[in-house]
Amino acid sequence: MDVLRVDDRLTDEERMVRDTVRAFTAEKIAPRMAGWFEDGTFPARELAPELGRLGLLGMHLRGYGCAGMSAVAYGVACRELEAADSGLRSFVSVQGSLAMAAIHKYGSEEQKNEWLPRMAAGEAIGCFGLTEPDRGSDPGDMLTRARRSGSRGGAPAERREPDRRALPGGVGGRPPTATRDGGDWVLNGTKMWITNGSVADVAVVWARTDDGIRGFLVPAGTPGFTASDIHRKLSLRASVTSELVLDDVRLPADAMLPGVKGLKGPLGCLSEARYGILWGAVGAGRSCYEAAVDYARTREQFGKPIGAFQLTQEKLAWMEVALGQAGLVALHIGRLKDEGEVTPQQVSFGKLANVRAALDVARQARTILGANGITLEYPVIRHMNNLESVLTYEGTQEVHLLTLGKAVTGLDAFR
C-alpha cells in the first residue's frame, strides 16, 4: 500500500532494522497491546531488557554500549514501534533521546560510564524532568530550583496543586528552598507529565540555579524525591506517566551535568525526541490506514465491499497521499540529520506536519470502520486517542507553528 515506495530508498541496514522491529512488535507487543491500553498498564521492566537486547535504547548514540546507528535507522525503528503503540515508542524515545541523550551530550565521563551502559541494556530506566504543572510550553520560566547547600536558609514553600489539564510530555514546579553547609545541591520543585517517572532508576531534572538552568541526575530512592503515577488517562494509557516531587532533595556536587548551561540543554534533547516523533507518527497513521484498507475490502454493504464505493476510495486515496508525503518528510529530515545539516526548524516542520497528517488519517480510518472503529478489536481508536497527546507533547502544535513563523519572518512571537 506504499504507492511511492518510500522504503525502497532505505539502505539494507535500515531495512534490517525495520524488519527486526516489525517482527518483534508483531510477536511480543501486538497481541497484548489492546489489553495494556484497556487496563492502563505498561510492563516497562519486562520490556526494557528485550528492547536493550535489540539495541533500540539509545541506538543513535555512540559508545558506552549504544548501537551507534544512523538517524534514519533510528527513525525507522520509531516508526515501527509507534505502529504498535505511541506508548511503546514514547518509552524508547524518553529512554534514548531524552534521558540517555542528556547524559551522553552533557554528562561527565563518570556519569556516562555509570549510567549509559546499563540504560542501553535496559537494566536501568531513565526519565526526563522538564515540564512543570504551570510551565508546559514555557520551560524557561520554570519554578524548580537548585541551590548550593548553605547559600540561603528557609523552609520549603507550600506545594501547589498541579494543573492536570495539560497533556503528557513535561514537568512541574514550586518555589525553592535551601539548607546549610557544603557544596551539595538542594533541589525543590514539581515536575509533571513525566513518561517513565515512577519506574525510572534515574531522573534527569532541570532546575533554575543562580548561574542559569542546569541539569541534575537524581537517582530513585534519594530522600525527598518521590514519583507518583497519573491515572484516569484516556490517551497514552499504555504508558507510565508520573508526577515528580523534589522536597529538599540533596545531591552531591557531581550530580550536575557539567556540559551545558541554560535552556539550550533541555531544548537540545527535545529536538532529538521530536525527531523520533516525526517518524513515529507515520507508523501510527500507517497502522490505522492498513486497518481501514483491510476493512474496506471485506465489509459489505448494498451487495458489495465498501471499498468499491467512490467515497470510500476517496478517503483511502487521501490517506495514502498524506502518509506518502509524511514518509518523504521523515526520510528527508533523517538524511539531513545524518549529514549533520538538520535544523530545529526542520524538525518542528516534520513534527507538526506528520502528527497532523497521522491524526487526520486516524480520524478518517475511524469513519470507514464505523462503530467497529471505536472498539479495541481494531487499533484505530487507540492510535487516534494517543495521537491527540502526541500532537501536544514535545512541543504543542502552536509552539511549532510559531517556530516556523519565526523562521519565515525573522520575528519572535513567543514573547
Compute the number of strand runs: 11
Q: Strand pairing plus helix content: what structural class?
A: alpha+beta
| Helical proportion, percent range | 40-55%
Count of DSSP helices? 10
Average pLDDT reading: 91
Strand order, largest beta sheet: 4-5-9-8
| Basic shape | globular
Gross CATH architecture of the largest domain = Up-down Bundle
Flag low-confidence runs. Answer: 153-181
**Which fold does the CATH topology of the largest domain refer to?**
Butyryl-CoA Dehydrogenase, subunit A, domain 3
CATH class of the largest domain: Mainly Alpha
What gap, in angstroms, lies between the N and C termini? 45 Å
CATH superfamily of the largest domain: Butyryl-CoA Dehydrogenase, subunit A, domain 3
What's the Cα radius of gyration?
A: 22 Å
Which sequence of SSEs, written as H and E, runs from N to C?
Answer: HHEEHHHEEEEEEEHEEHHHH
Largest sheet, strands/sense/barrel? 4 strands, antiparallel
Q: What oligomerization state is this entry in?
A: single chain
Domain count: 3
Write a structural description.
It contains ten helices and eleven strands. By secondary structure, the chain is of the alpha+beta class. The protein folds into three domains: 6-125, Acyl-CoA dehydrogenase/oxidase, N-terminal domain (Butyryl-Coa Dehydrogenase, subunit A, domain 1, Orthogonal Bundle); 127-261, Butyryl-CoA Dehydrogenase, subunit A, domain 2; 265-409, Up-down Bundle (Butyryl-CoA Dehydrogenase, subunit A, domain 3), CATH 1.20.140.10. The strands form four sheets. It has a four-stranded antiparallel sheet with strand order 4-5-9-8, with helices on one face. The protein has a three-stranded mixed sheet with strand order 3-6-7, with helices on one face. Strand 10 (300-301) and strand 11 form a beta hairpin. Helix 1 (12-39) packs parallel to helix 3 (71-84), helix 6 (264-298) packs antiparallel against helix 9 (380-390) and helix 8 (344-369) runs antiparallel to helix 9 (380-390). It is globular and about 80 Å long. Belongs to the acyl-CoA dehydrogenase family.
